[in-house]
Specification:
Blueprint (H helix, E strand, L loop, with lengths): L1 E2 L2 E2 L19 E6 L10 E7 L8 E2 L2 E2 L2 E6 L2 E5 L5
Antiparallel strand pairs: 1-2, 3-4, 4-8, 5-6, 7-8
Amino acid sequence: VTAIGGTSAINPADQFTYVAPPPPAPTVTNVNPNTGPTSGGTSVTITGTNFIGVTAVNFGSVSATSFTVNSETQITAIAPAQA
């Protein structure tokens, strides 16, 4: 702060920090196909939003065999067995 008498000294108590908001949570709007054999192996296209930075894809409580984030709105995942 600057006034007629001078400028205040800089100290830790007067610092301001900008903090980026957290990214929005992903949403799923479609799963295609939405059925497959219990042996797994079905390639599934997941459509939705905010898929950048996805670290896991689950079918119920079972992790996908593998997955690829194609874009912010689409993931291709391989369904695990007995999902």
